[in-house]
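On clarity, I found the account of how folds are encoded harder to follow than it need be. For illustration, here is how one protein appears when written out as sequence plus structure tokens:

:::
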Amino acid sequence: MGLPAPPPLGASALPAGTYDGVCVLVTGAGTGLGKGIAEEFARLGASIVIASRKPEHLDAGRAAMDALGAPVETATCDIREPESIAAAFDAAEAAFGLPQVLVNNAAANFPVPAEDMSPNAWRTVVDITLNGTFFVAREFGRRHLAADTPGSVINIGASYAWTGGPGFAHSAAAKAGVKNMVESLAVEWGPYGIQVNGLVPGLIPHEDMTADIQENLSRADPEKDALQPAMRVGTRREFGWAATFLASPYAQFITGHTLVVDGANWQRRSMTNPTVVPIRDQMGKGPFTLD
């Protein structure tokens, strides 16, 4: 049977207008889970600022917000560059005032065996996923500290921050840093009214999944629901609902916490271990050579 299906798209546990007059800045909100998060804040009245490097993603995010009738601003932003982040916040403030909520969603990731990973690949993923997340959070925190105003930060994480991620050593290491950042910043900034939490997705298929992730999923059992303890995969709206709750007035005593929205999948263990299949074999790669 599994866990029940979620309420329909457009439903919410929070009162209508919960985010009226609130500016929410979401990095990487033009596609995927970031867009789903932005949509749920928009449905509750928020003004949305979408920050992304790619013009086509900014356009897609704006179109999604326009379809909901939500006030929206877009800002070209490379989260590896503090000056670019500052410019994005300036644009947000000019449009809607200082963002009261930040969702650090932008990240980089792709599957690769550790022995095949180039130094540049390692640096790029860590620079975007860990350094970029900190730089954006830092800009948000500094502006709120200077203004003496409260705020809420949500860092999007990954369950392999706890477990390790074979085939994703770069991303797993970076996300472990992001999880620790949540806990550190929550303590530092709590006295100033800034809450910091993490949010981790499970398997939530969507049309914006990258080709390499889709290829990896295609190697697994095609019946993805049966692979989850919940007996179903997640939906973008469920992840978005979790984000809107964490930043809401009803969760202001929750800080330093990382909430996993994955139907208990990351905690699954077998009574007897399955046969070990090396990551290279799982990814369809041949034997490693130094060539």
Notes: The mean pLDDT is 94. Residues 225 and 233 are 5 Å apart (CA to CA). The domain at 23-282 is CATH 3.40.50.720 (Rossmann fold). The chain is about 40% helix and 15% strand.
